[in-house]
Design brief:
mainly alpha; rod-shaped
């Protein structure tokens, strides 16, 4: 089931990228509020 492993890997990479983008967007908004 290599295709299944590849599918799971893509989902994990997508979730990781999504969380990273959300984290950076939140930190940028907080910095804008301080300035």
């Amino acid at each position: 089931w290599k295709t299944f492993d590849l599918f799971v890997g893509l989902i994990q990479a997508f979730i990781f990228a999504l969380l990273t983008i959300l984290y950076f967007s939140q930190s940028m908004e907080l910095e804008d509020e301080h300035h």
